[in-house]
Amino acid sequence: MKNLNGIYLVIDPAMGDNLLEKLSQALHGGLGLIQLWNHWPEEFGHLQKKSFIEQVKQVCSPYGTPILMHEDWELALETGLSGVHFDEIPLNWEEVKHLLANHIVGATVGNDFDRITWLNEQGLSYLSFCAMFPSPSVQSCEIVTPEVVQKTRVVTSLPLFLSGGIRPDNLHELSHLDFQGIAVISGIMSADNSEKAVREYHSILNDLSITS
């Protein structure tokens, strides 16, 4: 399995017509992971979702960048995606975990250390902390304390991603934490030049000696 690190880009299918162009630019900058947010346009039916996913796969194919589906593990399996990211673990987790064997599976965590400990025992591929800073796109997330990230590193060797309001001008504030990458939405997809935005994040991660 590809090392999980660097820039983890979350894309919103409801973003609009230039999404695939923005994604292509970002891929030129170098992405470690891509997640398709389960936020579809209201008019999208199942076939339209599958068609969109195929378009994303075509754009990503030359780069070999893993694509994860947000929450909808059945759609991920149906369309041959690399894995799934869960905010909420399914009630039939044991069945789902079996079906997703050999796939990349990650989960969102916050300050609940009991949840972190349990997830660490479930054979996941990575954990993603939300949110490190306030952000309109992560209103459902609590602000994570640095101490929880530090405590998590003591109990797990899983790759850790940090997300939520991370920008080039505040990324250095996380330099004291042991993490493998950052998850970003608007910082890349809302930039005038997505490739330039990705490269700026990479430059700072390199300064922090984060593998990217």
Q: Could you outline the blueprint of secondary structure elements for this entry?
A:
Elements: E1 6-11, H1 19-29, E2 33-36, H2 46-60, E3 67-70, H3 73-78, E4 83-86, H4 93-99, E5 104-109, H5 113-120, E6 126-130, H6 146-155, E7 160-163, E8 181-184, H7 186-189, H8 194-207
Helix pairs in contact: 1-2, 1-8
Tell me what you see in this structure.
The protein is of the alpha/beta class and 212 residues long. It has eight helices and eight strands. It has helices at residues 19-29, 46-60, 73-78, 93-99, 113-120, 146-155, 186-189, 194-207; strands at 6-11, 33-36, 67-70, 83-86, 104-109, 126-130, 160-163, 181-184. It has an eight-stranded parallel β-barrel with strand order 1-2-3-4-5-6-7-8. Strand 4, helix 4 and strand 5 (104-109) form a beta-alpha-beta unit. It is globular and about 45 Å long. It starts with 5 loop residues before the first strand and ends in a 5-residue tail after the last helix. The relative contact order is 0.18.
Query: Nearest-angstrom radius of gyration?
Result: 16 Å
Tell me the helix content.
Answer: 25-40%
Distance between the termini: 16 Å
Give the overall pLDDT as a whole number.
95
Number of DSSP E strands: 8
User: Residue ranges: pLDDT <50 for 5 or more in a row?
Assistant: none
Kindly report the oligomeric state of this protein.
single chain
| Residues in β-strands, percent | 15-25%
- One letter per element, helices H and strands E, the order comes to EHEHEHEHEHEHEEHH
Main sheet specs: 8 strands, parallel, barrel
The coarse overall form would be globular
Strand order of the largest sheet: 1-2-3-4-5-6-7-8
